[in-house]
Amino acid sequence: xxxxxxxxxxxxxxxxxxxxxxxxxxxxxxxxxxxxxxxxxxxxxxxxxxxxxxxxxxxxxxxxxxxxxxxxxxxxxxxxxxxxxxxxxxxxxxxxxxxxxxxxxxxxxxxxxxxxxxxxxxxxxxxxxxxxxxxxxxxxxxxxxxxxxxxxxxxxxxxxxxxxxxxxxxxxxxxxxxxxxxxxxxxxxxxxxxxxxxxxxxxxxxxxxxxxxxxxxxxxxxxxxxxxxxxxxxxxxxxxxxxxxxxxxxxxxxxxxxxxxxxxxxxxxxxxxxx
Length: 275
Description:
This protein has 275 residues and is of the alpha/beta class. The protein is built from nine helices and ten strands. The strands form two sheets. Strands 3-2-4-1-5 form a five-stranded parallel sheet, sandwiched between helices. A five-stranded mixed sheet has the order 6-7-10-8-9, covered by helices on one side. A hairpin with a 7-residue loop joins strand 8 and strand 9. Helix 3 (67-77) packs across helix 4. Mean pLDDT is 87; it is low at 249-275.
């Protein structure tokens, strides 16, 4: 039987992929990958003759590959006896569009398997030396995203501002100022620590820690991806970080180059789907 494997590639370091996902990559006929999956990972594990299709997304970039196109590709490339791996950055369940793909696979009676990966929160916090639930600092974690600046209620912001655990923000770098100013408005302690971890687990990881009240002193490099950790545990970075900051100007992922490759591939594949 053919099958579609929905697998997490981990947060960036190719050594952080799971053994199970690596084994499926070694067998895959087709690999449909996210933008942030490193080339080194594919060079290490993918078959030399595997067809690799980039389906990169970058926020609301007008040329980003649409989810409907990715769904079409999964259906187009599935065949009996053929193994298709849909390789996602991080984990398959954390702020991923996996539900859209599951609905598509179910609708077309395509067999599938879900393989978890190390999510960005785990990778970034580990490589920054920040235990998310350090005893005496936090007994819970809340995962949120504000990537599209959704409307939030006053109650939501009040609860978040007075939340005593750790807040981990995915895809929220562009909303950082808005988020922290709103939290200050609703009563968060200005001395609460914030850690900004850019390109976590890669050779150019950069971590900056400051207090919410010091927002005006922080200059965020617009490098993707970025994870934000808010809470007492963020201050542990100073004592326990083991990976030093990289200040290289060369990004680990080159979005412009990848986007050109992505859209050449996706255009070709979409033409095939529409035949």
